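Everyone, describe these structure tokens:
***
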Amino acid sequence: MAERLIFPDAYAAADLLTFSGRASRAGDGAVHLRAARGTLAVAAVPLVRQGLLDPTPTIMGMRTLPVDPELECDLVVEGVTLQTEPGRPSAVLLPETAVEPPLWARADVPRSGWTDGGELDAAALASRGQWGMSAVAHALPIDPGDQMVHTVRGQVWSEPDEDLLGFPRGVAFVALSLGFLGADTERARVRHNGRWTRVSLRRGHVLWRGPAHLGMTDVRPTRAAASR
């Protein structure tokens, strides 16, 4: 794979490192890098579902950056491994090896065909994200185990929130944790494509696919149906 990512300036390179650093502190720490035709799409999932009965929604954050037009790549790396090249602040060195792409990185996110779904206040995203973080902190006991932390986070962030158009509250968490929220006066654009929803802000996009059914389906009276 390519040894480095070349950006038009040091600001774009620093932007990637800021994003990857935030991603490393939330979710699984993996960062998906896809570059083609002068654009780098970088994605991470601060929230990811683990298992059939896990209520935690898998919610992705994505940001696009200008990059060397001749560069093409599609790989997943650990966010903490990215760093600028010494003496060349507009270049980001890649690790010697990539990691096995997790399921979320293999999702076929639509690139076209999105339809308008209205708008959402950035202030509401910030408010509900901060409320959720406080709710998680207050619900956890002293010295909780990893499973307890995941369970509580799943319960808080999976809940539909009326202030967020009924979207799972985790949408606010992803926008907040990845640094997508700037001015409170911004209006986020909402778009839909089948089961996919995208909330777009100037600093990035929040995407998820749902709703997904959890648990087992209702029991049906098969004997009665068979006797007909």
Helices lie at 10-24, 122-139, 146-158, 170-177, 222-226. The chain has a mean pLDDT of 88. Residues 31 and 44 are 5 Å apart (CA to CA). The longest strand covers residues 39-47.
